[in-house]
Design goal:
This protein has 255 residues and is an alpha/beta fold. It has one domain: NAD(P)-binding Rossmann-like Domain (Rossmann fold, 3-Layer(aba) Sandwich). It contains eight helices and seven strands; from the N terminus they run E-H-E-H-E-H-E-H-E-H-E-H-H-H-E. Strand 5, helix 5 and strand 6 form a beta-alpha-beta unit. The radius of gyration is 18 Å and the shape is globular. 44% of the residues are buried. Bound molecules: nicotinamide-adenine-dinucleotide (NAD).
């Protein structure tokens, strides 16, 4: 699907990987709806992007708010052809320890946002895409989810995060199969360690240690590199049902 024909919902679009992807889509001639929490900087980021962007405040776990965001996207741009799921939270807590077991609410909250939220948005977005006339390749839309290298090699403290991202990887193929008759593709990107506000919370030393463990290039990933792959997935009609690691050959150690 051509970027210039695209109207894309970008969750987590106010920051990091989502914002970089929204910028790349707009630079390629497409339109974006930045879906992010009402308290995020979505309004400011959307106005920097200009008329091709809209801020649609919404929590990905809310059916009502996501439906509202899709409705305002339809009103502004007339269709939805893409959905890039970048909203997520990075959490860390061990299964149990001297302070007792991980509270179940920690595990549930992580899965609720990263996995259930992703599915909530994509199911509603795909339903809207069914209304599109297919393009010359028979496509009505494309979905790109964000997992993590932690879906495959989660570290100590990542049981909840890895479970949430493993779920995103696991549902990618069946969703692609579900939507194949309708010409809607679904792929997932599993990033390694990227230089975004999520990682900026770590001290410099920890960021350098992370970079040192990456075979090549030995640095954190740039959000623009994630955006480039997301745009490639939109453009390439033969990419479907697959999870692509984007990690400089990083395989994460236990800690
Ligand atoms: N940065 C990395 O190294 C890295 C590595 C692997 C995977 N990821 C994944 O990439 C995605 C993007 O991460 P990032 O690094 O850009 O982080 P980020 O913190 O910069 O951006 C995440 C955005 O998601 C939004 N968000 C969080 N919960 C939300 C909710 N319930 N509803 C709507 N919006 C919500 C936040 O407001 C924020 O704007 C996440 O899913 C993260 O797990 C990041």
């Amino acid at each position: 699907m051509k970027l210039e024909d695209s109207v894309v919902l970008v969750t987590g679009g106010a920051s990091g990987l989502g914002l970089a992807t929204a910028k790349a889509i707009v630079a390629g001639g497409g339109k974006v709806s930045l879906m992010d929490r009402p308290a995020s900087e979505g309004e400011a980021r959307a106005s920097e992007l200009g008329e091709a962007a809209l801020f649609a405040p919404s929590d990905v776990t809310s059916e009502e708010e996501v439906e509202g965001a899709i409705a305002s996207t339809m009103e502004a741009f007339g269709k939805v052809t893409g959905c890039i799921n970048c909203a997520g939270v990075g959490t860390a807590m061990k299964t149990t320890g001297k302070n007792g077991p991980m509270p179940l609410k920690h595990f549930k909250m992580t899965v609720e946002i990263n996995l259930v939220g992703t599915f909530n948005v994509l199911r509603l977005a795909a339903t809207k895409m069914l209304e599109n006339d297919p393009n010359e390749d028979g496509e009505r839309g494309v979905i790109v989810n964000t997992a993590s290298a932690a879906a495959f090699d989660g570290q100590i403290g990542q049981a909840a995060y890895s479970a949430s991202k493993g779920g995103v990887v696991g549902m990618t193929l069946p969703i692609a199969r579900d939507l194949s008759r309708d010409g809607i593709r679904c792929c997932t990107i599993a990033p390694g360690t990227f230089d975004t506000p999520m990682l900026a919370l770590l001290p410099d030393e920890a960021r350098q240690a992370l970079a040192a463990g990456i075979p090549f290039p030995q640095r954190l990933g740039r959000p623009e590199e994630f955006a480039q792959l997301a745009c490639d997935i939109i453009r390439n009609p033969y990419l479907n049902g697959e999870t692509i690691r984007l990690d400089g050959a990083l395989r994460m150690p236990p800690r």
